[in-house]
Amino acid sequence: MTMTNSETKADRISGTRLGYRFNIIGMVGLSVILFWALIAIFAPLIIPYPVGEIVDLDYFGPMSRDFWLGSDYLGRDMLSRILMGARYTVGISLAAVTIACFSGVMLGMFAAVAGGWLDTVLSRFLDALNSIPSKLFGLVVVAAVGSSIPVLILTLSVIYIPGAYRFARALAVNINAMDFITVARIRGESTLYLIRSEILPNIVGPVLADLGIRFVFIVLLLSGLSFLGLGVQPPYADWGALVRENIGGLPFGAPAVMAPSFAIASLTISVNLLIDNLPKKIRDRSE
Amino acid sequence: MNNRVLSLVLSRLLIALITLVIVSFAVFFATTLLPGDTATILLGQAATPEAVEGLRKAMHLDDPAIFRFLRWIVGLLQGDLGTSYANEMPVADLIGGRFINTLQLAGVTALFSVPIALTLGITAAMLRGSLYDRAVTVLTIGVISVPEFMIATSAVLIFAVYLKWLPALSFANEVTSLTELLRIYAMPVITLTFVISAQMIRMTRAAVIETLNTPYVEMALLKGASRPRIVFRHALPNALGPIVNAVALSLSYLLGGVIIVETIFNYPGIAKLMVDAVATRDLPLIQSCAMIFCLGYLLLITAADIIAILSNPRLR
Asked: Domain span at residue B270?
């Protein structure tokens, strides 16, 4: 009874504004994502202690009333550090996924519309790029140019451009075979117009769903790189770097080790849940 | 095998070869484009200009990049991996023993994860929609959407900290007995098995379900064949190609997992060597490790593609 109530309520909330119906699991995913987005924006206003300040006499302190998630290896408040870490994890990943999907989708649509040798060369080149394991690519780039936030954003986006390209190209090739494209071509429309006004509106739903999945990959890769000490550098720390800093607390079962991992897991699982429960209208529009 | 299959396989191998050339190009230039002069870095700040000039000559640093690339590739093909910047040892010697350690880790993981994943994946597909299937699906999605180091730290917390069954760190060079060997391998293998199995279960389940949706399986169902008979006689032989393809593809995830697992458990393998080389910016070592990893990855995905081609009965 309560279940159906909340479900219809959830439907009403989202349904009236967007014209789409989300189910309850999708709504849960969406709310966790919104929660982390708000945290990332307002973190400096809500952290209980300054991030760099040693506030606990004990290091690897347990959870307590004063320190909700315990303290880290220097005695800094873990909750504050995780809240601030959200800015780096969410911000860098969001920037990278935006660049990756924008470039990938643009190139994909262009290749599909242009066709011919351009399509072949571009596809072959990006496929080759795709067959470098992603963590390895990150390692090599960091070894070559060092790690800074702009370098990280660019590297992560370059790694995921081929995937976005392949996905968008496959969708765009299907649309490109439709009659209304032929009509537009006969009208003498430019390639740019075809991409912007004829193809993009028809693939935008699946592309957005793909963006979500790629966002999860990027969050995981960024955390992995930071965990290896090659991602976000001190004094800043994203969630992966927080796990690395505090790995010494593992034998004591300190909350400082697991809490950032749980933050990552909550974000990535929520995005997956949201994507899996997207209304069919968004997800499969082209099919 | 007829001509069509042969040409498909050959073209796939050719693509892999071209990819390898592009990849080696990318690896070489990514590592040579770095700011700073290699000779100056090697000799330190106090070096005289004459010494730097001499070393530049000796290392052919003044040659155009394309010549250095070709020299590097030819050396690589002849088994000359260069000399490490950090400790002046031949890279081949540094990699040798550690490469075997990594292969052992990967081999043991495959030995465990393949049977586990196939059993779970195939049974989940057979009982599609059941509680069991949903539990397996949720679990695999959960494992796939968390970082590898979280699996590793959780495993340490459960098996080493709370249950106290296993040591938290492993050092493969201090092995004296079989039980010790088992204890050392246990934690990295458990972690990697989780990561790889989750991928494999997902792909196997999808492959079997796709086969179960075909008309001939529906036909078998309509003629009254029992469920196990449908799966084992009709579906599985046809799903074998896609399943082996899925296994090879998921084994390529070992590469990413191995980097994290070797670092966290201090395992003396080639991935740990590479992460350390990145910290010291030891370029010849990074280049060689990167090429080994890319080669392994390409071998696996090419094998997966070729198996998919060979198993397609329409091409036979």
From this structure: 99-307
Does the structural domain A49-275 have CATH classification 3.30.470.20?
no
Give the pTM: 0.84
Q: What is the mean pLDDT of residues B95-102?
A: 84
- Residue B210's Cβ-count burial label (10 Å; 0-12, 13-18, 19+) is middle
Q: Is residue B146 a part of any domain in this protein?
A: yes
Please give the full DSSP string across A210-231, using - where no structure is assigned.
Answer: HHHHHHHHHHHHHHHHHHTTSS
Q: At A71, give phi and psi (nearest 5°).
A: -125, 160
Tell me if B245 is assigned to some domain.
yes
- How many domains are there within chain B? 1
ipTM of the modeled complex: 0.81
Exposed, middle or buried by CB within 10 Å (0-12, 13-18, 19+), for A224? Answer: buried
ω into B147 cis (within 30 of 0): no
Q: State residue A285's pLDDT score.
A: 47
The percent of residues above 90 in pLDDT, for chain B, comes to 7
Where in chain A are the domains?
A: 49-275
Give Cβ neighbours of residue A251 (< 8 Å, ≥ 6 apart).
B160, B161, B168
Confidence of residue A265 (pLDDT cuts 50, 70, 90): very high
Shortest distance between the Cα of B150 and any Cα of chain A, in A, equals 6
A18/chain B closest Cα distance in angstroms: 28
pLDDT the model gives residue A9: 45
Asked whether the beta carbons of residue B294 and residue A131 sit closer than 8 angstroms, the reply is: yes
Specify the DSSP class assigned to residue A52.
T
Residue B32 belongs to a domain? no
Give A211: exposed, middle or buried? Use CB within 10 Å, 0-12, 13-18, 19+.
buried
How many helices (H) does chain B have, and how many strands (E)?
14, 0
At residue B99, the pLDDT reads: 86
Q: Residue B8 falls within a domain, yes or no?
A: no
Given an 8 Å threshold on Cβ–Cβ distance, is B145 in contact with A269? Answer: yes
pLDDT value for A165: 93
Place of tokens 């965990």: A227
A71 three-state secondary structure: strand
Q: Please choose, from the candidates A157, A73, A257, A253, the residue with its C-alpha nearest in 3D space to the C-alpha of residue B149.
A: A257
B282 φ/ψ sector (left φ>0, alpha ψ -120 to 50, else beta): beta
Top-confidence residue, B218 or B92: B218
What's the CATH code of the domain at B165? 1.10.3720.10
A235-244, A273-282, B121-130: segment of lowest average pLDDT: A273-282
Shortest alpha-carbon distance between residue A245 and chain B (Å): 12
- Give the N- to C-terminal CA distance of chain A in Å, as an integer: 35
**A247 contacts on B by Cβ (under 8 Å):** 153, 264
Q: Which two tokens stand for residue B152?
A: 């590793």
User: With an 8 Å Cβ cutoff, is A248 touching chain B?
Assistant: no
